Amino acid sequence: MNSTFCLNRSVRSFTLNSFKNPKPIEVKQFKVQFPSGLIELSKLKCFGNVSSRTGVRVPQSLRDDSGESGRILSRRIRVSSNDAQFGSLPNKGEAESSSFAEFITSERVKVVAMLALALALCNADRVVMSVAIVPLSLAHGWSRSFGGIVQSSFLWGYLISPIAGGTLVDYYGGKVVMAWGVALWSLATFLTPWAAENSLLALLLARAMLGIAEGVALPCMNNMIARWFPATERARAVAMAMAGFQLGNAIGLILSPILMSQAGVFGPFVIFGLCGFLWVLVWLSATSSTPNRSPQISKYELEYIMNERQKSQAVENNPKTKMIPPFRRLLSKMPTWSLIVANSMHSWGFFVILSWMPIYFNSVHHVDLRQAAWFSAVPWSMMALTGYLAGLWSDTLIKNGTSITLTRKIMQSIGFIGSGIALIGLTAAKSPSVASAWLSLAVGLKAFSHSGFLVNLQEIAPHYSGVLHGLSNTAGTFAAIVGTVGAGFFVELVGSFQGFLLLTSLLYFLAALFYNIYSTGERVNFDENVS
Predict the structure, then answer these.
(1) What is the Cα–Cα distance from 436 to 429, expressed in whole angstroms?
(2) CA 101 to chain centre
(3) Shortest CA distance to 242 belongs to which of 119, 389, 377?
(4) CA distance 34 to 205
(5) Which helix (H) or strand (E) holds 69?
(6) How far apart are CA 117 and CA 248, in angstroms?
């Protein structure tokens, strides 16, 4: 069993797993790299013996054979021991591995927690209209197809911004662009009641402005995670951030009917908008764009991130990203198209379910608006949980030697094929409870794709991850517009939601096949000198 020998700021005490009769222990010569330089410790002696059971803090002196007093050391040294034998340092990977306790209390987790909150607000702000559209349609006499147009107005703006936003993220970094994005989409949400009271055009423009601002959210998330997390933790980090994204759906769907009953139809818009302004203040004051700019990060965590980054050739080791990215070369590679197809199908399914499920439960299963919101919210909570489990499993597969390419294909296949099968089951549901169960399964399995194509964006082009995400997001937004508007016209023409769900299921199967044929987990070279 490994024991840890700690040399902290003071050398008068140290932690051992146990302490028995004092007796000299000799440690073979080894070298330790400190910030101040290289220190050689030879024949280091201490008094005490160890077992593998209990930990005791023992006040002892420390000396070396030269007779010099023990040096004050500024970092922790981890010494591996088997059967209470000290004599060598563990291998580098073992020494640098991050424990769960260190991970969950680290500065990088604080960053991803803030990203999760931003993505929760992002989805809460957009999902409010999915609930508000029912009373607004009744008040203004809108048809179902026109209600689909009002809901899709968000996507008009979302179609424009991802490529430009992704380019800005790669050039300026995720912190600044995310702050501007959250501030602008919170303003658009806050102004929606005023816009709706004045004219339909103003309402559509406010929703489009919301889409423009929210288009930078996911590229910023990918950019910040690529800079803060080593490759072996990125799927977990993306899953944590996307858990906030999915919980934002649940929060918006559950709270919106309650807030509407207390503060009117526009109450949720005002409250969620104010929450966004508060988030911006905390984000700017409490986070940094990169680990080496953070005043709060510990030396241990900074060294761990930097060492892992050197292994994986992270973005900071690359030249400065060009302001105008090589779009032609990006689009000339089939792995890029595998991401575009995967993101398109992901967005199609996501926005169809997000926009139409409250109306589906209301019209097909005849539940009232508040119950419909609850039935629609449960699947998003499931997605937050399964997304984290998928990320954890994905990181474990890679650590255990499974190739990144195979891992991404496994995750993506579960995400799309599993969701397609569950949607087929949804079409046969006879009660709202059974329908909610099938929908929860479909959305929960869909979260596996976050550990597929969404992490894959960082792997094939780490210094173009923002613009690559923007390209795939633009294609995904176009697919979402077609799906959201098309669902309304399809239901009016055919008179059935089930047929549209079967079409979505078929598209899931085809997208999974395309991704498995053309995707890769290896870095793709988009340099100019590559033909």
Answers:
(1) 9
(2) 20
(3) 119
(4) 56
(5) none
(6) 8
DSSP H or E segment with residue 99 = none
pLDDT of residue 167: 80
pLDDT in tens, 43-96: 343 434 443 333 433 343 333 333 333 333 333 333 333 333 333 334 444 434
Angle between helices 107-140 and 200-214 (to 10 degrees): 160
With beta carbons less than 8 A apart as the criterion, state whether 361 and 372 touch: yes
Q: What is the pLDDT of residue 513?
A: 96
Closest CA to 464 of 320, 253, 338: 320
Q: Answer yes or no: pTM beyond 0.70.
A: no
Q: Are strands 30-34 and 37-41 parallel, antiparallel or unpaired?
A: antiparallel
Tokens of residue 79, six digits: 């010494």
Tell me the two tokens of residue 193.
């009641």
Q: What was the pLDDT predicted at 427? A: 86
Number of H helices, E strands in the chain: 18, 8
Whole-angstrom distance, CA of residue 424 vs CA of residue 300: 50
CA dihedral 352, 358, 362, 364 (to 10 degrees): 30
Token couple for 212: 């423009």
Give CA–CA dist 443/357, Å, rounded: 12
Give me the residue label for tokens 């991401």.
Answer: 339
State which amino acid sits at residue 519: S
Query: How many alpha carbons fall within 13 Å on the CB side of residue 512?
Result: 22
193 by Cβ neighbours in 10 Å (0-12 / 13-18 / 19+) ranks as: buried
Q: Is the dihedral of CA 151, 153, 156, 158 positive or negative?
A: negative
CA neighbours within 13 Å on the CB side: how many for 12?
1
At 321, the pLDDT band (50, 70, 90 cuts) reads low
Size of the chain, expressed as the number of residues it contains? 531
Q: What is the pLDDT of residue 393?
A: 92
Q: Residue 12 and residue 447: Cα distance in Å, rounded?
A: 51
* DSSP conformation class of 319: P
Q: Please count the other Cβ atoms lying within 10 Å of the Cβ belonging to residue 337.
A: 18
Query: CA 41 to CA 65: how far, in whole Å?
Result: 10
